Amino acid sequence: MPLRRHLLSAASSALPGGFAHILAQPAPVSASTLTTGRLWSLVAALLGLAGVVIGGLALARASGRIGAGTGRRGAFVALGTGLAGAVIGGLVVAAAKGGPGTGYGIVGGYLAVVVGLVALLLGALALTRSRRTSV
Asked: Which UniProt keywords apply (predicted)?
């Protein structure tokens, strides 16, 4: 728990407006309530998912399976969206004061971190393949 508090204070001081204050809310809440923590974890997961789709398409282009081109632009987009999804998901997890079902979005935050890392991996693979084919 002390590590979470240090990460939370570092994150809130780094971001304007204090991200931690946005996620602060009383627990528990209804399962159907869209809290700010759940909303941020949803945004992060969708960013990561977009990165996975774009990274997969860029990987297919880099290997010559779909269309013409190297897929470098898609690789960079996948890297950016994957990184954004993983970072936002990590901030949601760091700011969560409770476990699953409390409304802080911790499950979605962990999901966003995993999906964001997959998008980063696909983007890196596509970038590596596009460098090999363009040389």
From this structure: Membrane, Transmembrane, Transmembrane helix
